[in-house]
Amino acid sequence: MKEWLVVINPNAGIGKVHKDWGKISKLLDDYGLDYHPVFTTGPSHATELVIEHVGIGYRKIVAVGGDGTMNEVVNGIFGQKQIPTTDLTVGMISVGTGNDWVRTYQIPMDYEKAIQVLLRGNTLLQDAGTVSFYNSETKKMRYFINMAGLGFDGLVAQKTNADKMRGKGNPFLYLKHLLGSLFTYKSCQTSIIVDGKTIQEKIFSVGIGIGQYNGGGMRQAPDALTDDGLFDLTLIKDMSKWSVIANVRRLYDGTIKKYKKVETLVGKSVRIESACPVLLEADGESLGHSPFELNIIPRSVRVIIN
Length: 306
Description:
Layout: E1 4-8, H1 12-30, E2 35-39, H2 45-55, E3 60-65, H3 67-79, E4 89-94, H4 100-104, H5 111-120, E5 123-135, E6 138-144, E7 147-151, H6 152-165, H7 173-181, E8 188-194, E9 197-209, E10 231-237, H8 241-253, E11 262-267, E12 269-274, E13 279-282, E14 285-304
Parallel strand pairs: 1-2, 1-3, 3-4, 4-14
Antiparallel strand pairs: 5-6, 5-14, 7-9, 7-13, 8-9, 8-12, 9-10, 10-11, 12-14, 13-14
Helix pairs in contact: 2-3, 6-7
């Protein structure tokens, strides 16, 4: 058995992993990484591969792909029941379209530098979250380790992921759908309960962060700490499309919380109910609709950081 399990999503980055795997594997070989590569073939396959290989003894995992690939790997870490989640170590070579989880830890996008981070082996026990949601009448649950986005964020992610599934995409895909969706999206009356405190508002979007970034570099939870046992919530209240356009820069430079239509909170548990269906994404993956329940799992995933 090899030391590392390397989980490769060839479709990540709109096929960039498939194109660049030869380059990445040569660097892994050059640096002497003792690894076993496995390739995903569809949704949730990375989760299945992690559960299977943890069962035969693997304890170090590298995700090669985007935020969705890392999300599936983490769901595999929680899905296996043989050992504590903190006995597994996961790192990342990020080749996605958003690459938001690595931004918080300043892990380089350069393949060689990312491999050097893996080999240095500096680790942190970071928080994870659970989110329950609905697909039609069926209640489901998912783990996540970066950020969940509700409302407008969920709609933009749904459109972005649909384009990626069709093989269409570029670094500005999320921004394209962010601006395009403004003309069809309607805010929804929403009840948000954070650690027992209730807020009733007409909500444009909600970001619930463990990490700081989502949407391909938007710093929507600028004060989030990945190991403090708390979600950082950014509530954007109902606002006109022109106000959104005028303040998009705030999402990228981390000043969004200073805008008058924004409220920030922290908490360990969140429940969200809405008067109309609200869409959800977590770690960039489109999942389902309201109502939602989210809970933090403090310091439950051992990750390799820069």
